[in-house]
C-alpha cells in the first residue's frame, strides 16, 4: 500500500523532499492529462467545441464534491496567484481601508496586495505571528488584535508557505463573517494535504492548488466564492462568458471559466487525481508522511539544538515541516550543497531575515530519504 514511488515520475536519482513548491503528478494521472492534450491536437474543433464543455462541467462537479461545496460556486484557475489577482482587483479599496494579514504569507500574494494598496491608498497590514506558535486560542486572539474599524478584508493562508503551519482559518472566517469583514483564504497547500471541507470553513473566498498536494498536473487550481460575494467579481480576462450568448446557470462560472483558447487538460485531469488518492488510501499516506515530517523536525532540531516552531501535533503541521537553521547558515549555499553532494532537493529559505528549512514528504518518499537528509545535515551543519 505504501510502496508508491513507482507510481510517480520523480527522477530516481534525486531524493525529492520539496513536494510543497510545485507538487508532483502520478504516472496514471499524467497519462490522463497527455491523453486530453492529444485529443486537443488531433481534432481541436471537435474537442474544444463539442467535448470540453461537458468534460469541464464534470471536472468542476467532481472537484466541488471533493471540497463539499456547490459546483456553481467553484471555478478552475491556472494557479492561486491568478485567482487572487482576479479577486483583489475587484475589491473597491479606498484610501485608509485595511487588509489584515500575517507575516507568514506567500511572497506573490504579498506583492499583489502591495500593488493594489499602492494604487488605492489602502493598507496591507501583516500582523507578526511570532514563533513558536502555541495554541489556536492564543493565535486567534493575537491575530484578531490587528482588527480595527478600518479592516475591510482578512487575508490568511490555511497552510503557510515559509513556515508550513496550519492556521485555524475556520474560526477566523466565522469571526470575520460576524464582524462584516470579507475573508479570503489562501489554501494553496491544503487540497490533498489535510482533510478539507470548504463548506464548514465558510470563507467568502477560498483558493487552492490542485497541482500541489492533490497531485494533479501543473496548472490546475481553483477559486471558491460564497454566492453573496460572487456579484462583486468581474472577470480578470473578459471573454465569451461576459454578455454570454448561451448563459449557463451561474454567471460566476460564465465570467471566469472561459479565458480564450488555452490548454485545459490540467483542469480536466483533476478527477483522475482525486480518484488516484482515493484508490491509494490517501488518509494513510497523509498519516505516514506526517510521521516522517515529525521525525524530520525532531531529528534536525536535535542536530541544531534549536527550538521547534510549533507544538508537535497534526493541528499545526501536516506533511511539511519547517525548522530553524543556525543563524550563521547561508541558506542558498546549504541548498546547493545538499543537491550537488547528496542529491537532496529540499527548500531552504530566509523568513524574517533568518534561515529556515522546509521539508516535504509525499507518497513517493521513504524512511531512507529522511535518513539520508539527517546524515547529510549532520555533516554540513556541524
Ligand atoms: C501559500 C501559497 N500561496 C499561493 C501559492 C501559489 O503560487 P503560484 O500561484 O505561484 O503557483 C503558493 C505556492 O507555493 C503558496 O505556498
At CATH level 3, the topology of the largest domain is: Aspartate Aminotransferase, domain 2
Q: What is the count of helical runs?
A: 14
Bound molecules: pyridoxal-5'-phosphate
Uncertain runs: none
Shape: globular
Q: How many strands appear in the DSSP assignment?
A: 12
Query: Rg, please?
Result: 21 Å
**Number of separate structural domains:** 2
Structural class: alpha/beta
Per CATH, which architecture of the largest domain?
3-Layer(aba) Sandwich
Beginning-to-end CA distance, first to last residue = 37 Å
Percent range for β-strand residues: 15-25%
Mean pLDDT: 97
CATH level-4 homologous superfamily of the largest domain: Type I PLP-dependent aspartate aminotransferase-like (Major domain)
The ordered string of helix (H) and strand (E) elements is EHHHEHEHEHEHEHEEHHHHEHEEEH
Helix content: 40-55%
CATH domain class name of the largest domain: Alpha Beta
The profile of the biggest β sheet is: 7 strands, mixed
